[in-house]
Amino acid sequence: MIFRSRPIAVWALPLATLALALFVLGADVGGAATWLRGILFDHYQRSQPRAYEDTRVRSGHSVRVLAVDAAAIQRFGLWPWPRAVFAKLVDDMKEQGASIVVFVTPLEKPDSASPKKLLALVPPGPSYDAARTELEHMPSPDDALASAFSGIQAVTGFLLGDARPARTLMLKATVAWTGRSYPFGQTRAFDQAAASLPVIEAASAGVGAVNLDVDADGKVRRMPLVFRLRDQAVPTLDAEVLRLTEGKDAIVLKSNDGNTGLFGSAPGVASVDVEHTDLATTPDGALWIAYAGPQADRDVSVSALVDKTLAPGSLNGAIVYVGAPDELVDTPLGPMPIAEVHAEAAENLLLGTALRRPASAGEAELLCLALFGLGCVFLFARLGVRWAGLFAVCIIAGASYVSWQLYAGEHVLFDALGLNIGVAAVWLAGAGARGLEIATLRSRLKLAFADALPARMIDQIARNPQLMKLEGETRTVTYLACGVRGFADLASSFRGDPAAFTRLMQRVLEPLMEEALGHGGTIDKLTTEGFTAFWNAPLDDPEHAIHACEAATGMMEVIARTNDVITHERRIDGVALSPVEIGIGISTGPAIAGGFKAHGRTAYSVNGDCAVLATRIQQISGQYGPAVIVAESTRKSSERGFAFLEIDYIAVGSHDEPLKLYAMLGNPVMRASPKFRALATFHDHIFQSVRAQQWQKSRELIDQCRKLSGASQKLYDLHLARIAYFEDNPPAEDWDGAFRPILK
Question: Global pTM?
Answer without folding.
Answer: 0.67
